[in-house]
Design a protein that fits this description.
By secondary structure, the chain is mainly alpha-helical. The protein contains 11 helices and 2 strands, in the order H-H-H-H-H-H-E-H-E-H-H-H-H.
């Protein structure tokens, strides 16, 4: 009976240790600024993303210039302004605005999941969509142009300088966080909420390891410890090759900017998340093999 309890404690400890690392990483993504910044902070430097956002801004901008200025833009607004808007990606002001977008989105999405957990869900998978508000980026990119136009055309009779604010369009990109129609929003919300208690999972795993070792005896203690460690290693490898290395699908009709974001995040997220799981699996595997060798070398208990 003691041997069975020891095995159960150590197996559960292995699973809790996996849950602890998974919870830690998810908690960091949802509630800390640095991981999101590391994963997506360099996105404005991606040429495809810069071009996609520039096209969105130019499409909106050229249709909203004040009528009084249409005659004053030689060669057409798009030819004159597109290079200015595109160049505005490569400056500190735009990068700061992008970081603001990332952090606001992270905070908002965390609150969105916690609300689903607290208030329930309709079951519609689109409740998991992420709304990326790029308006701060468009404002930062067009700020020099707006200020320049105000200085250059402030003499035009009847032209309100504040009218140039329309050059900074409101841009919102919807990203489908879950591409499978079978995804359950409440399950996502439950995992997100539980992730903040990852330290309790780690403490529980440590306590169960100690209890399992104390309850067990002889070779059985070593083999139970090996079983728990190898379960942790196996689960860690599985997560390293699945959840830590996701393959995001591009739904039909997804905007180019959203597609670029998904591709970038897929690569950067894997580079951020996967090494910890390789290390966890290696350490767990070594511990399991060591415990197994310890069990084989341990003298058998004679009655």
């Amino acid at each position: 009976m003691r041997h069975l309890l020891s095995v159960l404690c150590l197996l559960l400890a292995g699973m809790l240790s996996v849950g602890s690392l998974a919870g830690y990483q998810l908690d960091q993504l949802l509630r800390s600024a640095e991981p999101v910044r590391d994963i997506a902070g360099s996105l404005p430097q991606e040429e495809d993303f810069a071009e996609a956002v520039t096209d969105i801004i130019m499409e909106d901008l050229t249709g909203r210039l004040p009528d009084q200025l249409q005659w004053a833009v030689p060669g057409g607004a798009d030819e004159l302004l597109a290079p200015v808007v595109a160049a505005a990606f490569d400056n500190e002001r735009t990068l700061d605005a992008w970081d603001e977008v990332l952090q606001d989105t992270r905070i908002g999405y965390t609150a969105q999941l916690e609300d689903i957990f607290a208030e329930g869900t309709s079951g519609e998978v689109r409740e998991l969509d992420i709304e990326l508000d790029l308006t701060p980026v468009s404002e930062a990119m067009t700020q020099p142009m707006r200020e320049g136009l105000e200085d250059a055309f402030s003499w035009v009779p009847g032209l309100d300088p504040g009218s140039f604010d329309i050059i900074a369009p409101e841009i919102t990109v919807d990203i489908e966080a879950a591409t499978e129609n079978t995804a359950d929003p409440y399950s996502w919300a439950t995992v997100a909420t539980a992730s903040q208690y990852w330290l309790f999972f780690a403490g529980g795993a440590a306590g169960l390891i100690l209890l399992g070792v104390l309850i067990g005896h002889g070779r059985g203690r070593w083999f139970a410890l090996a079983a728990g460690a190898l379960v942790a290693a196996t689960l860690g490898l599985w997560i390293a090759m699945t959840a830590a290395a996701p393959e995001f699908q591009h739904p039909a009709g997804v905007p180019e900017a959203a597609g670029t974001i998904l591709d970038h995040i897929q690569v950067q997220y894997t580079q951020w998340a996967q090494p910890a799981w390789w290390m966890f699996s290696a350490v767990s595997g070594i511990a399991g093999l060591a415990a197994m060798i310890g069990g084989l070398l341990s003298p058998s208990r004679r009655r």
